[in-house]
Specification:
The chain is of the alpha/beta class and 471 residues long. The chain has 20 helices and ten strands. The strands form three sheets. A five-stranded parallel beta sheet has the order 4-5-6-9-10, with helices on one face. Helix 9 links the parallel strand 2 and strand 3. It starts with 13 loop residues before the first helix and ends in a 7-residue tail after the last helix. 45% of the residues are buried.
Length: 471
């Protein structure tokens, strides 16, 4: 059976088809938040087969494989990638309705020219066809990026990283795509984690500072931020569950560091005070350096203790957490705004119940320094499917200003994930095209087409200004 992925996939009106084909389709990609490995980009990684390219590190696929009772050996275990691919192919027909069904067939079509639907019956021929492409000059990591029309991308990096491969990529004139680091001090904020003391030692070594107080943490992160800026960094990234930023107690924040470094666990009040103080301080430094601050909110991590103990983190056992207190988010943004230290900020929520809340909060802190300074970010993780993207776009359009939106990102570890940008663009054009078709928007294809182009690329390129960093 042939694929349903045709030129007008998801485009249900003439207006949506015009907007996509005439305006969205040809726009470049700025993948400003991903988890690609810069070492693999620099080394121009070659994949052993499509099993490795698809299934190594992809927790989205691991979750649906477990739901189909596939033994862990064929998911994260030591089975060969051909076996893992065959198991994944066997469950594909049953994934109808899950975005993986759409993503996988888009990837087969765009990267490999494959029109067949993936199943046990087609697995062997698809495996051979895809592998022939992966083993060709067009199948390397760099070429997969280039053929996806990527102009720049931002990886996600710990402050203690030496950024060796970002430096080497910046010096490599044979690769035209900008690869910039993102400053993610998550481990420095997780003060109740048992690994906090060891991480402080690692961070201190990278900064040349012995960390014994909260002021030392500030100094170390400031030093590393300077280092990141010198290597082209334009963004920071933070991930929280449902933090309480209403807590402000500088003595408790300082005490939290002292206790954590001594191997004690700070109280909930002390931990909240520490995170509030640190985010306020970091935000001011981001504003000074013109870094964009990304806040990913609403995840609850490692909920399956058995899997966490045997397999570790990031294996598909994170989930949607509680909604964020509106007062908490307002307190964080307001403290920085009062002192004119609020950086450009992108707010993402994993809990779709917070869509309107984040869109409304963003509107409270806009100012004349930057167009769309506070962004309600793209539908994230468990929300990056048709319904989730549609809900996020409608919420932003209704409460904020859709035309200023900075658009899509992959948030992925896979070099084959770039068709997710196409997926987003088709959904965007579908929504706006329906407005035109229903008489809710004018048939101004030049004007509305320009808005589509801006959302696809121009807005985020101007917002983050990657030309200020790197090559």
């Amino acid at each position: 059976m042939k694929t349903f992925i045709n030129e007008d996939f998801l485009l249900n009106t003439e207006a949506s088809r015009r907007l996509y084909h005439e305006h969205a389709k040809g726009m470049s990609i700025f993948d400003y938040h991903c988890h690609l490995d810069p070492a693999e980009i620099y080394g121009n990684k070659r994949f052993s087969d499509i099993g490795e390219a698809w299934l190594a590190g992809d927790h989205y696929k691991w979750r649906v494989m477990r739901a189909n009772a596939i033994p862990e050996k064929y998911i994260t275990g030591d089975a060969g990638y051909r076996e893992k691919f065959d198991w994944f192919a066997s469950i594909m027909p049953g994934l109808i309705g899950n975005p993986i069904y759409h993503w996988s067939h888009l990837e087969l079509k765009r990267f490999f020219g494959i029109d067949d639907l993936l199943s046990s019956d087609t697995a062997a021929s698809i495996y051979d066809h895809a592998n022939a492409k992966l083993q060709s000059p067009e199948g390397s990591a760099r070429q997969l990026i280039v053929q996806s029309n990527v102009r720049a991308l931002c990886t996600t990096d710990d402050p203690a990283d030496d950024l060796k491969y970002h430096r080497l990529l910046a010096e490599d004139d044979t690769f035209s795509v900008k690869v910039l680091p993102t400053f993610r001090p998550e481990k420095a904020l997780n003060i109740t984690d048992s690994g906090f003391p060891a991480y402080m030692e690692k961070l201190g070594n990278a900064a040349g500072i012995r960390i014994s107080s909260i002021d030392d943490v500030h100094r170390a992160l400031s030093e590393r931020m300077e280092y990141f800026a010198a290597h082209g960094c334009r963004l920071s990234d933070h991930s929280f569950g449902s933090p309480d930023f209403t807590v402000w107690d500088e003595d408790a924040a300082a005490k939290a560091v002292t206790k954590a470094l001594a191997g004690e666990i700070p109280t909930e009040h002390e931990a909240s005070a520490y995170q509030s103080q640190m985010m306020d301080w970091l935000g001011g430094l981001y504003a000074k350096k013109d870094f964009t601050m990304q806040l990913h909110i609403g995840a609850i991590r490692n909920v399956n203790t058995k899997y966490y103990r045997t397999l570790g983190p990031d294996i598909g056992c994170d989930s949607i957490g509680d909604t964020l207190s509106a007062a908490s988010l307002a307190a964080l943004l307001d403290r920085m705004a009062v002192e004119d230290r609020l950086p450009k900020t992108i707010l993402y929520t994993l809990n779709a119940a917070d869509n309107d809340k984040l869109a409304a909060a963003a509107g409270c802190f806009q100012d004349s320094s930057t167009t769309g300074k506070i962004q309600f970010g793209a539908a994230w993780w468990f929300n990056d499917h048709i319904d989730g993207m549609t809900a996020q776009l409608r919420s932003l359009a209704s409460i904020g200003v859709l035309s200023r939106f900075v658009g899509m990102l992959t948030d992925s570890r896979s070099f084959l994930s770039y068709p997710r940008h196409e997926y987003f663009r088709r959904i965007l054009c579908r929504i706006v095209g329906e407005w035109i078709d229903r008489g809710m928007a004018p048939e101004d294809y030049d004007g509305i087409g320009k808005i589509i182009e801006d959302i696809c690329f121009n807005n985020v390129w101007n917002y983050i200004a990657p030309e200020k960093g790197g090559r």
